[in-house]
Each structure stands twice: as structure tokens, then as C-alpha cells.
Specification:
The complex is a heterotrimer of chains A (371), B (221) and C (218).
Chain A lengths: L9 E5 L11 E7 L2 E8 L7 H7 L2 H9 L6 H16 L5 H29 L5 H21 L8 E2 L2 E2 L5 H25 L3 H7 L7 H6 L5 H5 L6 H4 L20 H25 L20 E9 L2 E9 L7 E5 L1 H5 L3 H5 L4 H11 L3 H4 L2
Antiparallel strand pairs in A: 1-2, 2-3, 4-5, 6-7, 7-8
Chain B lengths: L3 H11 L5 E4 L9 E4 L1 H13 L7 E10 L2 E13 L2 E13 L2 E9 L8 E6 L8 E3 L8 H12 L2 E3 L36 H10 L10 E2 L5
Parallel strand pairs in B: 2-7, 8-9
Antiparallel strand pairs in B: 1-2, 3-6, 4-5, 4-10, 6-7
Chain C lengths: L3 H16 L27 E5 L15 H5 L5 E5 L4 E2 L5 E2 L2 E7 L8 H5 L5 E3 L15 E2 L1 H4 E3 H7 L1 H18 L8 H14 L2 H7 L12
Parallel strand pairs in C: 1-8
Antiparallel strand pairs in C: 1-6, 2-5, 3-4, 5-7
Helix pairs in contact in C: 5-6
The chains are: A alpha+beta (371), B alpha+beta (221), C alpha+beta (218).
Chain lengths: 371, 221, 218
Amino acid sequence: MSARLEGELLEVSMGPQHPSTHGVFRMNVALDGEIVVKLKPVFGYLHRNHEQIGERTSYLGTMPYTDRLDYFNSMSNNWGYALAVEKLAGVEVPERAQYLRVILAELSRLQNHASLLGFLLSDMGAWGTPLMYAFREREKVLDLFESLAGSRMMCDYMRFGGCRVDADAAWMERAKKIVYDFPRFLDEFEELILENEIVIARTQHVGRVSAELAISAGITGPMLRASGVNYDLRKVDGYGFYPRFKFRIPLGEHGDTYDRLMMRVLEMRESIDILKQAFEAITPGPITNPKVKVRGFRPPAGECYGRIEGPKGELGFYLISDGTGTPYRYHVRAPSFINLTILEDMCLGHTVADVMVILGSIDIVMGEVDR
Amino acid sequence: MESLEQIKSRIEAAIAGASVTIVPNPGPANQPSLLIDNEHAFAAVQFLRDDAELRLDYCSSVTGVDWLDRTVKKTVKVKEIVDGVEKEIDRAEEEKIPGYLEAVYHLYSTVRKHGPVIVRMRTTDRLDGAHLPSMTPLYRSAEFQEREIYDLYGVTFEGHPDLRRILMWDEFEDHPMRKDYVQPDDFEYEPTPHDEVLERAKEHYSERPTIDGAEPVSTQP
Amino acid sequence: MTGAGILKGMAVTARNFVGSYFEKERLTTVQYPEERAPLPENYRNFPFLVFDGDEAQAGLRCVACQICEKECPPQCIYIVKSKDKKPDYMGKPQFYPATFDIDISVCMSCQICVEVCPFDAIKMDKVYELSRRERFDALLMDKHELAKSNSYYHGIHPTEATEVDTRLAEAAAKKKPAPPATAAPPAVAAAAKAATSAPAAEAVVSGTLPAKPTPPAT
């Protein structure tokens, strides 16, 4: 019997307090039965006008605020902002500081991707266990951040032309041990989930994104590469010392949720490779540029767009300086905000339970989406 | 990638009547941009996207900038006849530069892996004339970002499929990223011991000097 | 075989469950508050004011230059400079903070105040159990609550505190090129006058105490 009931659409307001919306995010969804026919995201519950705060604070004073954008990756955010300001002012960064930045950014990527996998599994209904395993690993990286920068999440570690504190030999040994032990967790995690029939049924062919749409919609990061587009700023821009490292860019084929999940696992393996090379290559030396003043930092008038490959995608900072101590214009190109552009396209035709999985695979942090 | 001059001349050759200006960018970053007139901007950006050489298929960042009205004070030497004798006098003149809102697009190519080509558009003024053509039909990534500019700066993008406020709530009236935005006194006011601190902090922040010695003119009555 | 993947996953959870009884690696939680994880030396929380000697208010290193107040990004510091001068830890008269408040409900622990302080007077504390029953005044720390001794500073950040002490001792030695014992008091007073009348900005660039040449003792 294939008779179809005709009825009205059901409008559901999902969020902002739902645990799987990763913070305070709302979607106005119209449902035909269980199938999504319309989805409009609603933003702004965490909006604090980060950009205006940046326009009335000194260049240095904005650094701790960038920690609070994507609060999982304060190290990457610091680097993105420092990179933009260094470009704007033409500041050189000493060699050791460059290696330290690579090490910390890749550690940050490791813990971000690990916790994303945990959250995604949690969204699929695997409550607790995978998330706890992921957080156990993340905790080790956060302990490293804490012993170096003084804080687990709000690191505020990088400065224009260098880094704030140097890592001693003991720290390096600890970091090495954690990185060399990390594949054990990855092997176990892959065993835990990747062949799981439920995971496969929930993720394969769900939320497919074509390469053309992904490029046009400005999707970046692992989500873009899951659609098979080879675009990684570590290779394209070659910022920092990334050209000195040998690593591969994992690419997906189908652009579905399973590919996006796999992309994170594979990227973690590449990050471990980069970290191992960095531990070998790093040499003692100064970590700050003595020409840069701590107080009263004034870049010359001009404008600049600096971007890095953050764990969630292209993190860009656009700055206009008028020669004073505060930027005239400070703009953050937030990857998880722009990755949400095609959320509706991805969800149409799927069931309401799939919306959570698709949203989870985008990897958003509301601190960055709402800014 | 070709130089900006070459791109400029190619746009002007391809699109009749398009006026493209190169906006120089002093300073070490050296990222000059193309200022395109509003009427031909859509066609010009489409040309940049589809051109076989450039293939700028990825619009990374879209953002607004607010430039206030300003007056530039100059002293001009004028010859005048005073008491039958010709004398050279310094006369202060003021040139009024009207303010405008700007939308800045950073275009990259994922195929050729080059960029950025920075495209700017300017509104005629900061009030009723704050209209610009929307690039959302060309780049989906502009959809939310143009909504953000509409919300925070008050630029209306013509041709945008779904232009609504995005970060502020729908009933909100002002545009909080504008330089002359004044915070209302009455939202969620709480007496904190911090108020005194804020009051004192004002003393430390002097009025912002503008780029070429011009003085900002407030649009507030 | 359907279900093989699930069984494989179950084996992993079983390994972790059993392993948590034997391996510290697999059971990393601690039973707070009975058990506490040790804090790393670099850990930072909220700022405090360092004093030398035994008397807290007399020994404050802070000279109320208000640099930290200006640089603080969320503007949580509030300073009122004193009208009179009191001798500082080196015995020369300096201004002191008549009021020094930090609103720790606003402070975001960025430690920019520590980085910009040219007198090594403000440092980051490690106390983290700060919950209060009242939201506003209870979280506003005044200078009596903020003042902590140099030995306390040595206790929480030993490496950093030793560096600071060495730097201060060097600056002090540079400032006093051993004047004759009888003429010491006026010379010190004159040196202090020269130092305090110098613009604050000069003191900042080097990041240490201003090293002014001492006028010859006459």
C-alpha cells in the first residue's frame, strides 16, 4: 500500500537549547512527516560584537579576545591574528617561534578533531563512551597547553613577532611522548567506530556536498576536502614554516558525512607526521622579535588580509590600520560561520535525525559563528 | 597571477562602460584592490570568476567598512589686493569629503591556487544611498556575509535572495558596527562596581586622529 | 557479517573497561576535591600585587603608574594615585596606589597587565576556588586582598620569581654605584627625584626599572 497522507507541514524550532546544536544555535525546520523540506538557521544568541571590541582595543589587547572565538583552538586563532598583524606591520618571526607555532597549531588540530569525532558520535546516539575516550586524549594536549601557556583553553600564547614563553626541554619530552602515543588512540578509535554498521548506516550518503557547490559556498577545511577539492592553505599559501614539512592532504570522494568523519581521522595522522618532523627540526634560539614593542604597537597605515588553515577551515583576519594604536577595521572571517551557509542544501530530503548528524559533521563552535 | 593593472584593463575591455580604479595600499602588506562602479560590478566580478586565466571561483571573505564624513583642512596661498598692494595671504580652506560604506570581497582561485584579488564597492552615501549589488548569485559564500553587512552596517544588497538581519534580533533598529553608533543607555543595565572603572577609562582614550590629518565630523545632531 | 563491526567496537570498550583497573593511562580522572591534580608552574588565574618585606601596604612594589589600567583589555583595573609619596622597597619615595581594585568578575586572565608592568609589581596568582555568594562587591578585590608577599610569589612561580629578583637586584646595583656612607641619604633622595620625574614612557621601553645615572654625591 503506497497511499500518501496529505497534511500540513510541521514547523519545528530546533534549538537553541538542544545539546546537539553545539551551543546556542537554532534551526527553523519545516517537516513533511519526518523529511526536512525547509531549514533556516537562526544565529546571534552568542553575538557580542567581537569586531567592534577589536576596533576599540589595542592590537595587543585583541589577542586574548581571539581565544574566545573558537574556544577549542585558541592557539590557531592566536596564530591567525598574529599572522595578519605581522603581515600588516611587516614583522619577521624568529625561527624557533615559527616551529613552536607549527607544533602548537598541530596539537590544537589533534585535540579539535579528536573531540569533534566524539561529539559527532554523541550526536548519533553513541552517548558518552566515544566522547569520553576522545576527551581523555584531548585532556593530555590541554595539559600541555596549560603547562606552557598557563591556561588550558584561553592560551593567549602568541605575540606579534613571536611567542610569549619558551618551551623547555622537559615540555618537549612530554609533548613528544603524547604525540608518539597518539596513534594508539587513533587505532583504537578506528576499531571502535569506522566499521560499526550503525555509524555507516547513519553517515554514508547523508548530507552530500558536490565539489562545485562547496567551492561556491566558500566551504573550507576538512569539509571542503571531503568533497574532493585539494585546497589546503598550509600548501597553497605555505604560511609559517609549513613548506619545510612533508605531509599529505587527505581527500574525500563522495562529500558525505562519512567522508567528513574520515577526513578528520586522516588529518590527525598527517598532523602527527608534521609534529614528529617539527620535534626533530626545532633548534634553540630567540622566540621574540626584539623590534616589536609590547606597549604602543602601531602598524603603519594600510590594510591586510591574513589567513591560516585552522582546524575548522580558513580562518582569516582583515585589518585596516590608520596608523594609530587601535585598528580602524577588524574583521574575522569565521570558518564555521561560512560553512553553515549550505546547511539547508545538505539537509533537504533527509530525516530530522540526520540533521543533527550533518550539523555535527560541519564542526561548528558558536563562539566563532556568532562572534 | 597577472598584475592588477592587467586585470583592470581586461575588465574594462570586456565590459563596456565599466570604470575600475586601483586603490593603492601603502604599508608592508601591499594588497592593493580594485574599486569597481556599482553599475558594472556584478558583470565585472562575473568576468573575474569565469575568465579562463583567472578562475577566481572562491570568494573567501566579504566585509563592510564604514568611512565617516570628514573635512580636510588645508591652507592655500591666495593673492589678494589689500589697501592697493598685492599680498600673498594664507587662507584656510575646508574640503568636505562625504562618507560612504564599502563592501570588500576577497577572491581566490581554488583551481589556479592564486589570489587574492580584492574587489571593493562603495555606496554613494551613508543614508538612503546605501545600496550595492549583491554577489550572492555568483558566490553562495556571500549569502550570510552580505546579510551580516546588511545587519551591522546597513547596506542593502540588491539581488540578494534572503536579506534579513542575521546576528542582531529582527526588531533592532540601528547598525552597531557603524562608527557613529551610540549604545543605548537602557539595555540590561546592571549596577556593577565596574561602572566607575569604565567612566575613568574614558579619560585614557583620546579622540582618534584620522589618516590625512582630517577631522571626523559627527553625524549626530 | 553484519554486526562484526559492532562486536569489534565492543572489544575496544571491554579493553578500556578492564584496562582502567590496571593502567593509569586509561583512567585519568581524579576525585576532586579530595584529590587534586597538581598545577603546572606556568598556571595563571587572576593577578595579585607583590610586596617586599613584612608589611603588605608599605612594601607594595606598585607605584601607581596606571600603565596596566590603560592596557587592560576588559578594563577591570581601577587605580587612584596617592597624593603623597612613601618610601618604596629600596627606600626612595614613590607614589603608591591609594586605591587599587581589580574586578575579577570582569578579568579574563590574559596577563597583559603582567607583561606591561615595568616594576614587576603585578603577577598572576594560582588560586582558583574563588566562588562567592554575592555577584558584585564580593568579586571586587581591593589592594588589601590583592597584596601578597614576594615569598608567596616564590612559592607559586619559583623560576620566574628568581629571574625577577635577579633583575631587580641588578637594576638596584646599577642605580647605586656605592656612594660614601655618610652622604648616602641625600644622594638616594636625589636619585629618587630624578627617577620619578622621568616620564613613565621611558621606563616602559626597556621593560625593567628605569636606570637613571645618579648625580654625584657632594
